[in-house]
Amino acid sequence: MKQDHIYTMFLKEEFFQTFTDRPVAKGDTTQTLLAIGVNSREEVDQMVKTATENGGSKYSEPRDYGWMYQKTFADLDGHQWEVLFSDMSQLPAEF
User: Fold this and answer.
1) Whole-number Å distance between alpha carbons of 1 and 23
2) How far apart, in Å, are the Cα atoms of 27 and each of 5, 31, 54, 62?
3) For the chain, how far is it from start to end, CA to CA, in angstroms?
4) Residue 66: phi, psi to the nearest 5?
5) Domain extents for the chain?
6) Are 38 and 47 in contact (CB under 8 A)?
7) What is the value of pTM for the model shown?
8) Who contacts 55 (Cβ-Cβ below 8 Å, separation ≥6)?
9) How far apart are CA 56 and CA 74, in angstroms?
10) What pLDDT, in 10s, does the model give residues 38-82?
C-alpha cells in the first residue's frame, strides 16, 4: 500500500508520556529538526503563524530563494521545524 502523507500530532506532555516509558525531552535541547514541504507560500506562512500563536517560537529569519520559500519555528519542547514550499520549475540550472 502506497502512502503519500505524514501526519503530525502536537500533544500535551501528560498525554504524550502515555506513549513511552522514557523521559520526554525538555525545551533546553534540540532533539529533532523536521522539514515539511507544503503546497504554497501561503500555507508556509499559515502553519508558522499557527505554531507561534500557540506557544512556538521563531528561531531564524524566513528565507526566499525564488524557487524555495522557508520559515521556521521551534515547538514547546525545542524541536525545530522548517516549513517550506518549493517550485521545482523555478530551480536554477546551476544549483
Assistant:
1) 34
2) 27, 9, 15, 22
3) 34
4) 90, -60
5) 26-90
6) yes
7) 0.72
8) 75, 76
9) 5
10) 999 999 999 999 999 999 999 899 999 999 999 999 988 778 899
Cell numbers at 37, concatenated: 514541504
CA angle 51/26/35 to nearest 5° reads 45
pLDDT tens per residue across span 2-50: 556 777 777 888 888 898 888 877 767 666 778 999 999 999 999 999 9
Distance CA(16)–CA(14), nearest Å, equals 6
The string over 9-24, giving b where at least 16 C-beta atoms fall within 10 Å of a residue's C-beta and e elsewhere, is eeeeeeeeeeeeeeee
Tell me yes or no: is domain 26-90 CATH 3.90.1170.30. Answer: no
- Write out the three cell numbers for 13: 506532555
